[in-house]
Amino acid sequence: MPKTAPVEDYHFRRQGRSPALVLALAAWLAALAGLYFYAQATPWLIALLFLPVIPGLFDLVKNPGSGLDVTAEQIVWFTGGERTDLPLSRIAQLRLDTRLDLSIRATLILTTGNKLRLPQPVVPPVAELTHALDQRGIAHERHHFSLF
User: What sections of the protein cross the membrane (predicted)?
Assistant: First the structure.
C-alpha cells in the first residue's frame, strides 16, 4: 500500500490596514468635504455621515490582525482578541454562500448539526480554503447569491 505524503498546514493572514481601506476612507472623506464646502451641507449632516468612517479609522490606526490555520487535527481562527480552535473531527462540512455584494460567508456545519459562522476577516480566498479542506477530506458546498 503506497504511503501518501503528509499534508502541509494551511495558513492565511490578513491585516486591518490595507490600500483598499485607505482609498475608501479618502474617497468618503473627500465626499464629505465636498458636501460641506461646495454643497454647504449642515454640520449635523456631515457629522452623521462621518459616523461610518469611525470603524475604518480605528482599523487604520490599530491595524488588527486576523487569520485562519488548518492543520491535520484542527482548524484555528483569530480576529482581534478572539481565538477559536475546533477539531476537524467535529466538522461535517463547510457551507460557502456568495452574497449579493459578492462577499463570501463561510459557515462550518458541525457533526452535531450546529452551525458556526467564520468571521468575515478570517475567510481566505475560496479556492485556497476548499483545496485545504479537500486535502483533509472535509466536504464543502457552494451556494451562489443567497439572500438568507
Answer: 20-38
Backbone φ and ψ of 101, nearest 5°:
-85, 10
pTM of the model: 0.76
Residue 82's CB: how many other CB atoms inside 10 A? 10
The most distant pair of C-alpha atoms in the chain lies apart, rounded to whole Å, by 77
Q: Find where cell 476537524 sits.
A: 88
The answer to whether the CB of 117 falls within 8 A of the CB of 136 is no
What residue ranges do the domains of the chain occupy? 19-62, 68-144
pLDDT tens digits, one per residue of 100-134:
888 889 999 999 999 999 999 999 999 999 999 99
The angle subtended at Cα 8 by Cα 64 and Cα 12, nearest 5°, is 15
Q: Are 122 and 65 in contact (CB under 8 A)?
A: no
In single-letter form, the type of residue at position 13 comes to: R
| CATH number of the structural domain 68-144 | 2.30.29.30
Residues 8-45 pLDDT 10s: 899 999 998 889 999 999 999 999 999 999 999 999 99
3-state secondary structure of 117: strand
